[in-house]
Amino acid sequence: MTTQSLAAVTLPPQTGAAPDRGHPGGDAPDHESLAAVRATITAYAPRRLPELERERDQAFAQALGSGSLRPVHRFLHRWQAVASTERELADITRAVREEFLHHPATGHRPTAARAAAALEFAAILLTAAAEPPGTD
Q1: 119: number of CA atoms within 13 Å, CB side?
Q2: What local confidence, expressed as pLDDT, does residue 25 receive?
Q3: How far apart are CA 7 and CA 38, in angstroms?
Q4: Tens digit of pLDDT for each residue in 100-132?
Q5: What angle do CA 39, 45, 47 make, to 5 degrees?
Q6: Which Pfam families does the record match to this protein (predicted)?
């Protein structure tokens, strides 16, 4: 099977996996194919593509070595969650930017310094929220 044909693989949820609760984007991340996950990462977090590809290669190598799809399941479920988080972070960032660059209640634009400070603060919060637990 080639890498391109593997990219179209959609895996069913693992037995005992957490139930699918969806996300604000409306799609259920547990059912995204590798191609959809890669497209989301490309659009929202291209800096993470090398990490995704490295982990994909490791998961497929482990699957071939063990004869089990469990490593591929773990990889895909992890990256479905990462893609969902990156999508949500982009939506939040866009909302914060719109709020601080043009406040709808007053119609006034804040000063450039205030807007820059607000965006920097939002970026810090979003970066902290995106870090996996236990990476203090």
Answers
A1: 14
A2: 44
A3: 8
A4: 666 656 656 667 777 777 778 777 777 776 676
A5: 110
A6: DUF6247 (PF19760)
pTM here? 0.57
Cα–Cα distance between 34 and 85 in angstroms, integer? Answer: 16
The span from the CA of 82 to the CA of 67, in Å, is 26
**Residue 130: burial class (beta carbons within 10 Å; 0-12, 13-18, 19+):** middle
Give the tokens for residue 84.
Answer: 């969902």
Residue with tokens 């291209």: 46
Alpha helices in the chain (DSSP H): 3-7, 34-44, 49-66, 70-101, 112-130
Tell me whether residue 71 is in a domain.
Answer: yes
Could you list the residue range(s) of the whole structural domain that residue 58 is in? 31-130
